[in-house]
Specification:
Layout (H helix, E strand, L loop, with lengths): L36 H8 L2 H16 L5 H13 L4 H6 L17 H14 L1 H14 L4 H16 L7 H18 L33 H32 L4 H21 L5 H14 L3 H15 L3 H15 L8 E12 L5 E7 L8 H4 L19 E3 L5 E2 L3 H7 L5 E3 L7 E4 L9 H7 L7 E3 L6 E15 L8
Parallel strand pairs: 5-7
Antiparallel strand pairs: 1-2, 1-8, 3-8, 4-8, 5-6, 6-8
Helix pairs in contact: 7-11
């Protein structure tokens, strides 16, 4: 009786074990208390140790000099910030690649130095962003129209997109670099032709990081600050718009959106080859670029305020009424039937003793019975627990009166089914087979039409009997996890 468990048929969601690969230079076993001197020297001069030492020396050489204040603040942060279990896993060096031998953890001096280097070099991104904004907001209309002309040409002939990266490299990288080395004369009239002959007169143009005390450095900090604010606002706005209708907090609305998207996906799967994608891309590009014009924006906002906003409530009401009439959701929780088998064992005085409540019937040909294992389960009915994620729907267990059905469904052999009374299913003690029915079921299985018998009192009963209890369970609502 030492194999009783408190929960008989709980479906456990155990975490998947993490497989770790040990390094080739692991320590010796704990049993080796005094390794030889030769082993110590060989271990100290191994290739992995030398590589780690060289990497540490290189890191110390390249590490920026930090002040005492930075080091003290870093130590303070190490005491305040809690360490997580995954940190060791993430910081574990990858032995398969020389690029990721070691990744440094969080360090305030290293973070400060990396931010300074990043801020000194991010200016080119902000310059590109500023030029894109000027192009899409029609600051210089001729530039925007030129962009639309190129976009139109690319939409009408998509094969020209392969030429676009090469043209950008030539016009915006190579030509300006050549003109920087061959500047025009100081006094150059508009009518004079630009001569490209002769040796280079100026040094090549190079992109250098901004100095830490220069105006460009602080402009980069300002733009980086504004970009972080813009990203945070855009992120919160997108979440506030798309999260409520798509996270099934309002399940009828989310189900309607899911149905619409499913219909659109099926339609696009069938009709996507028939759509004029060139014309659609051309119209979409022109429409999106036109919305950036100030006059178009004013006209669009006024139209939305006058015509669309008064009808938003009416459209939402029509959608809600359609959802209420056509979208039917299951309000009742999911129900399942679970089972437990009450096992009893015949004692030396031919009395049946309560033994265990087990999730399996422990029939004569079960794997546990053949291997000689004891039945597993719980001793008391009150200790039987519902599966994980479920809770009891009924208050009490119900005896299954159809013992014949579950015996036939499980193809249980070598048993006698009690058709009346308490519906016990007994083991049959065949003559010359001891306590089990293995030999009899193997030899007589082809001659009999069924491998069980109805209880008539004529057969000798074995050591075990069981009966089936059932109970309804329903899905349990999941508790909200704290962030």
């Amino acid at each position: 009786m030492d194999e009783f468990t408190a929960e008989a048929f709980v479906n456990r969601d155990d975490p998947i074990p993490v497989v770790t690969v040990s390094a080739t230079d692991d320590h010796a076993a704990d049993g080796d208390d005094s390794p030889s001197r030769r082993h110590k020297i060989k271990k100290a001069l191994s290739s992995t140790k030398l590589r780690d030492k060289l990497h540490d020396v290189t890191e110390k050489k390249n590490e920026p000099s930090s002040s005492l204040q930075d080091r003290l603040f870093a130590k303070l942060l190490q005491q305040i910030v809690p360490t997580e279990d995954m940190t060791d896993v993430l910081d574990t060096p990858d032995k398969r690649s020389s690029m990721y031998i070691n990744r440094p953890g969080f360090s305030l001096p290293l973070m400060t130095n990396n931010f300074r280097r990043f801020n000194a070099r991010i200016g080119v991104v902000f310059v590109f962003q500023n030029r894109v904004e000027r192009l899409l907001t029609w600051r210089v209309p001729t530039h925007t129209l030129s962009f639309l002309a190129v976009y139109t040409f690319a939409c009408l002939d998509p094969y020209t997109l392969a030429v676009l990266p090469v043209a950008i490299l030539l016009l915006f990288v190579m030509v300006p670099s050549f003109l920087a080395r061959h500047p025009p004369p100081p006094a150059n009239l508009p009518t004079d032709s630009y001569s490209i002959h002769g040796p280079p007169l100026a040094p090549p143009r190079s992109i250098k990081p901004a100095n830490e005390m220069s105006k460009d450095f602080f402009r980069n900090m300002r733009d980086l600050q504004n970009c972080m604010e813009d990203f945070s606002r855009a992120h919160d706005k997108v979440i506030s718009i798309f999260a409520p209708p798509t996270n099934f907090s309002n399940e009828p609305l989310s189900s309607t959106i899911f149905l619409m998207l499913f219909v659109i996906a099926c339609s696009m799967f069938l009709a996507s080859s028939l759509l004029p994608w060139r014309a659609i891309s051309l119209f979409a590009g022109w429409a999106a670029t036109s919305l950036g014009h100030p006059s178009v924006q004013r006209a669009f906002l006024s139209t939305h305020k006058i015509h669309l906003r008064p009808r938003e409530k009416q459209a939402r009401g029509l959608l809600d009424s359609w959802i209420a009439h056509d979208i039917v959701l299951d309000s009742a929780p999911e129900m399942r039937e679970v089972e437990i088998f009450e096992l009893q064992r015949r004692g030396s005085n031919n009395e049946w003793d309560p033994w265990i409540f087990s999730p399996s019937p422990y029939d004569p040909l079960s794997s546990g019975r053949i291997s000689g294992d004891r039945p597993k389960g719980t001793r008391f009915f009150e200790d039987v627990q519902p599966p994980t994620g479920w809770e009891w729907s009924d208050k009490k267990w119900t005896l299954d009166l159809l013992s014949r059905e579950w015996v036939e469904d499980r193809m249980v052999t070598g048993v006698e089914v009690e058709m009346e009374g308490e519906r016990w299913v007994f083991d049959i003690l065949y003559e010359g087979a001891g306590d089990e029915a293995l030999e009899h079921s193997k030899m007589k299985g082809k001659e009999r039409k069924r491998d069980w018998e109805e209880g008539n009192g004529g057969s000798v009963k074995g050591r075990w009997r069981r009966r089936r209890w059932v109970r309804m369970v329903k899905r349990k609502p999941l508790s909200k996890k704290p962030h």
